[in-house]
From TrEMBL:
Membrane topology value: Multi-pass membrane protein
Protein name in UniProt: Chromate transporter
Native source species: Caloranaerobacter azorensis DSM 13643
A GO CC annotation given for this chain: plasma membrane
GO terms for MF: chromate transmembrane transporter activity
Amino acid sequence: MIYIKLFISFLKIGVFSFGGGYAMLPLIQEEVITKNGWINLKEFVDILAISQMTPGPIAINSATFLGYKIGGVLGAVVSTLAVITPSLVIILLIAHFLRKFKESKYVDWFFKGLRPIIIGLIASAAILVAKNTIIDIKSLIITLAIFYLVTYKKLHPILCIVIAGGLGVIMY
């Protein structure tokens, strides 16, 4: 039964998410914490941190880690397949029809209409993570320092992860 619930939950996430992995995070949070109570918010933030540090898309990594936490290896497989299935089907359909309609003003309007939604979902994910990881002045300093290094100094994200980890060890 848990595998069916996992599949349906992550299939819904895959169907109703536009804009990539970060846009999926609020939907994942709603499904696994609020609706089903499979994990708590602290565990969710920890899984997000691991998902960001491991190679691959964050949504797939999150689905895999969450599925494993909830249902073991089979749960990981089920969650991962469920979250990628809608994208795979949609991309195949779009590829087939986009050639025919790529100059359509309606298609252009549709994609322009999705942009604000995607920005909102990504902002929601950023706020969620910030609220649960910036717990004191030290974590705020690390956050601002890494934001500056990535945004303005264009340091590689992997290097920034190492720097943030080192700062965490030193400051805590």
